[in-house]
Sequence to fold (597 residues):
Amino acid sequence: MSRGAAGAESRLVTITIRTASVDDHGRLMHAEDATAQACLAFVRLERELECRGLALAALRRLTVLSPAPAPDADAAEPLATGRSRPTTAPGDIVDLIRERLTPEGAHVPVDVLPAERLAQPGLLVALRAEVVSPPSTPSTTHEGTPMSASTLDVAALRDVSGLLLPGDAGYDEASTPWNLAFPLHPTAVAVPHSIDEVITAVTAAAELGLRVAPQSTGHLSSTLAGREDDTLLLRLHELTGVTVDPVARTARMLGGTLWRDVVAAAAPHGLTALHGSAGDVAVAGYVLGGGLSFYGRRHGLACSSVRAFEVVTADGALVRATADEHPDLFWALRGGGFGFGAVVAVELDLLPYADVYAGMLLWDLARGAEVLRAWAEWTSRAPESATTSIRFMRFPPIPDLPPFLSGRSLVVIDGAVLESDERAAELLAPLRALGPEMDTFGRMPAAGLLGVHMDPPAPTPGVSDHAMLTALPPEAIDALIAVAGPGADTPLMVAELRHAGGALDASTDAALPHLCGQYALFALSAVPVPDLLAPGEQVTKAVVDALRPWAAATDFPNFAERQVAASALYDEVTSARLTAIRDRYDPTRMWLAAHAV
Fold:
């Protein structure tokens, strides 16, 4: 292979597309007819590929998602949901799909995966496709005319007060994301300090034909890298501030505010929030992607706690979206909020916890298989009050790390148990019986929960992969141990499972109403130098591929740090509704989103 060909191959990315038998408005077609549904889902897949300028030969894997039949059930017996059972077996559908793929030269694996939940009653078949695609498509003006950097009026950019251009003092610092493995090189950067300055920047970008990428910290910069030509990066990290109403138990924070500042402001009132595991993540991006907290199994996704969003839309208007005002936008922003505007303020409910029973248990990785099996069994019985994770972790010998981490390979269980001290100790007893070398579980101020997961305290280069898992049977445990456990020869830094279920599985009126699956799998590889990016992508993908047989129908937006289609994150009905809402609020597709709707 020539050097040019090799370079082109390295720039390819894998995206996931999910289709089903619905029309353009999300309405189910061919209810109860599995064959017809498979055919229409395949036609929609072809159309999606065509819109991306791709052929069926771009497919790398195709999965047929179908509800699992009850064991030993009579074929004519109704399902518990009231649906009749499909008259066509999944194997027949696979044969039908292969007949369509073969003439197009698409010789790809076609799998069948029992899906825990499809979009709606009567939907018997959906398709999930892994597709190899270039990382970006040409930028366009609002009229759809192809545009390149050479067509931009640089003098016009210079005339806009506050914009930073390449070469300007402060440009490099402002455009550097939290994930240092994916540097961004936008056409211009704006760093507003007020909502009025956000409106000015968005209006100027629209007049200049630039796309706009709102960003607070840049944790998801991996989804934007390579797509930021002709783009204004709207860095909101200076737009911060928190106001707490202790009587109403709510907080309003400006769009770039970090969770550590919200937690600090709420703590004096004996309150906290459905924050994530790291304090340096911004509230807005976290709730727009759903928000998974160590309070989650008791209280659900963080996006369900949002009362209001204040959003600058593509036309420069400031809109307040609540359940009563702009309710469609409010619905979309709660977990599906990529590409609808720049969120400049969020108002959400707080939790009445001044302190919490939380911490971690730590063993040498040599105990990894034993501990993982015990944790999996423990989570199958754990109450909703307990939200925990388990990680296989490999640390290089870095002096900045504490001695119990530096140069070591470990297995760690951490999280929170919302119970009295006595009840929490009773629940944790089976795990403590394994004799951890470190046990920090105990009563702590609620703000201390931000430090339990030991996320990196500063911007860090890394690459990751992710899937939601419907279950964690012994075969899945063995698969994870084989690729990431004690005996695995891997440069992987972290392989993590977070326990979901409980309130995280309870539907709310939001674009992301719940998590699809019982465990969130996350694999991370450090990328200290650019040459390790490709190997890191390979090793993290290998972990997810090993657990693919137990993958849920959709992934979790906050953990999807590789660019995927919206259909990989939301069911077909939700994707169609999100698209319709974006058509209303961003018809020219000005916003550059982490995952495009």
About this structure: The chain has 15 helices and 21 strands. The longest helix spans residues 34-51.
